[in-house]
Specification:
Length: 91
């Protein structure tokens, strides 16, 4: 996590997504239909946004499918790295 002042332009961030060691996505936020500022403006018209709130905006094709045990690794140089291990749903 970073603060807003640590990102020069949120509408120009390179990001990659790997599943295990396989590159599934290599994208830039400039390709989004609505830019980051527009999404924040829209959300804040309905909700009070607080530090730590997350936006889930969807994703370009290429992410799935996943299997239990797979590792999903998302990276962006200014933001860092997020690693998630997939597991089966527990009833």
């Amino acid at each position: 996590m970073v603060t807003a002042d640590e990102i020069a332009d949120p509408d120009n961030l390179d990001m990659t997504l790997h599943v295990n060691e396989e590159l599934r996505q290599s994208v830039n936020t400039s390709a989004m239909v609505y830019n980051c500022r527009k999404l924040i403006e829209f959300a804040s018209s309905f909700y009070t946004l607080l530090p730590g709130d997350l936006f889930y905006t969807g994703t370009p094709k290429g992410v799935g499918p996943f299997r239990p045990g797979d590792w999903i690794i998302a990276r962006s140089a200014p933001l860092g790295e997020l690693r998630i291990q997939v597991r089966a749903h527990e009833a």
